[in-house]
Amino acid sequence: MGETARQAGDRRPIAVREWAVFSALAGWLARRRVSPNGISLAGMMSGIAAGGALAATAHLAGIEQRLAWLAAALFIQVRLLANLLDGMVAIECGRASSVGELYNEVPDRVSDAATLIGAGCAAGGDVALGFAAACVALFTAYARAMGKAAGAHNEFCGPMAKQQRMFVLTVIALFCGLTPADWQPTPEWAAGRGPMAAGLVVIIVGGSFTAARRLRRIAATLRNRSA
After folding, report:
1. Domains in the chain: boundaries
2. Where are the alpha helices (DSSP H) in the chain?
3. DSSP label of 92
4. Closest to 184 measured CA to CA, from 174, 192, 194, 193
5. What does the alpha-carbon distance between residue 210 and residue 226 come to, in Å, rounded to a whole number?
6. What gap in Å lies between CA 4 and CA 14, rounded to an integer?
7. Counting beta carbons within 10 angstroms of the beta carbon of residue 14, is it exposed (0 to 12), middle (13 to 18) or buried (19 or more)?
8. Distance from C-alpha of 63 to C-alpha of 51, rounded to nearest angstrom
9. Which pTM was predicted?
10. How far apart are alpha carbons 181 and 36 in whole angstroms?
11. Chain-centre distance of CA 61, in angstroms?
């Protein structure tokens, strides 16, 4: 999340935040004075690395390609872990700063764009779908940010928020990295597109619905407050 003083009720609802292992890890990082902003930047670098690993799968074969798929899945999860821990260190351990909101938002947008565009360039992906998915992800976050700027609370509803987008990509990367090649069909009519292209379509459709749902809920909140 970043070094920000947001109220607990205005944070992204993440169930694993309550797990003892993550509370202990956040406490360990805080005691070593690890900067929440630094954790945010590390998460961004992991998102960029995930996109690079996904794109590399289009230029590799055999075991090297499988390792690239698995590396992408790992980097995606490291990015999400950093997104979890930076907020816990900043808020729960009292390490807030005036620029925390910037570190909360900007690295996330870079990570989303890099990972989704990388997915579009991956083996079985589609470049146009990757860019479209990145645009949808950015618009979904933009809708939330504009709602907050207009006076509503942060709206994190799905069904295709950040965690779900990254879950789709992780599952596909693991599937492509671990299963036999004949389990990963690329029919002739698909023009080389495979599981990753299908996953990007799911993200685009789900993300578009998510953006519309957030805007509708934000508008309802603002109307109720002005009534």
Report:
1. 8-226
2. 20-31, 36-56, 62-87, 100-120, 127-150, 162-178, 195-226
3. I
4. 194
5. 24
6. 17
7. middle
8. 19
9. 0.91
10. 41
11. 27
Which residue in this structure is represented by tokens 């390609």? 65
Structure tokens at 86: 């930076």
Query: In this structure, what token pair is assigned to residue 102?
Result: 């910037």
**How long, in residues, is the chain?**
227
pLDDT in tens, 71-118: 999 999 999 999 999 988 887 667 666 787 888 899 999 999 999 999
User: Could you give the CA distance from residue 92 to residue 217 in angstroms, rounded to a whole number?
Assistant: 28
The yes or no reply on domain 8-226 and CATH 1.10.3720.10 is no
Token output for 41:
């930047």
pLDDT in tens, 112-164: 999 999 999 999 999 999 999 999 999 999 999 999 999 998 899 999 999 99
